[in-house]
Amino acid sequence: KPPKEPPKIHRLDEAVVNRIAAGEVIQRPVSVVKELVENCLDADSTSINVVVKDGGLKLIQVSDDGHGIRYKDLPILCERHTTSKLSAFEDLHCIKSMGFRGEALASMTYVGHVTVTTITQGQLHGYRVSYRDGVMEHEPKACAAVKGTQIMVENLFYNMTARRKTLQNSADDYSKIVDLLSRFGVHHINVSFSCRKHGASRPDVHTVATTSRLDAIRSVYGISVARNLMKVEEKDNDPSSSVFEMSGFISNANYVAKKITMVLFINERLVECSALKRAIEIVYAATLPKASKPFIYMSIVLPPEHVDVNVHPTKREVSLLNQEVIIEKIQLVVESRLRNSNEARTFQGQT
Ligand code: ADP
Ligand code: MG
């Protein structure tokens, strides 16, 4: 057989490249909500309201009362890699904002129709403008607006037939969005959150700003969760192995559930850490076998240079320096907290 000629390599169209990249950042409707809500938080909002239609495929609308967007920035707002948060790569070490890559809004315009309404302090009116494929569709139009920004994403994945089909068949994206806002609500207790279906009069999550974490947990997850929680805290300052602070609430022996709920924030970012989750589950199974599916809210703070936030397009997973050491220390704290409470219980039972 004569050797086959190698296929010719060609450059992909920019539009194709952008849509592929966008599909990675925006995997499902809940990814849109996460990015938009994080932008609201970055804009110092105190009230964030979400409306969802058709699981997010028809409409996702997120409104905030934050600092708004300058009129002059609107033309480049949805271009890829435009951001007000990062300028040098080195800044990534100490980034405090949720966003930094200027990719979220751009991505949304490649897979959906984005409309922004915004007003900045001291202005008499706001502006509204729509975007497609990174660019403004028309000059911003003056409009009435209340403080802050509202971003609307319509017809998500209209140009990705396969993605739309798989999502249409799974009815659970709205519950993922509700779950996301519940988590934010428990962590950002100084912000009020709400989420409802389009046309519904009652929200499915609604938190009011408070100073008590336990109140926030109660309003989101209910009394039966809140009354069975114990505070945990740990501060470690051993520069050779681990430097971190952890605080949170963990469920006691009376809390019985079908599955574990783990609400985890690392350096103010909502993340998943399956290794830590598993480690805690193991402690519960060994210490409180009847309550082995706990509720955990945990906030961990590390020196920013110990966390790599840029390992995943969705920023969902972070990698930590000395992860094993930190996990082991948290395991010990949780274990001793569970043992103490269990002994106190047994003791009470005897008297
Ligand atoms: P990033 O958050 O990584 O900067 P985004 O694409 O999410 O990138 O947003 C681009 C920019 O748009 C942000 O840096 C910010 O300046 C502005 N922005 C987006 N959403 C809001 C909002 N709700 N309020 C104020 N400014 C916003
Ligand atoms: Mg962002």
UniProtKB/TrEMBL annotation:
Entry's localization field: Nucleus
UniProt keyword annotation of Cell membrane present: no
Parent-record interval covered: 17 to 367 of 741
Protein name per UniProt: DNA mismatch repair protein MLH1
Organism: Quillaja saponaria (Soap bark tree)
DNA mismatch repair protein S5 domain: residues covered: 217-339
Family from the record: Belongs to the DNA mismatch repair MutL/HexB family.
Any GO MF annotation of the entry: ATP hydrolysis activity
GO biological process entries: mismatch repair
Record keywords: DNA damage, DNA repair, Nucleus
A single Gene Ontology CC term: MutLalpha complex
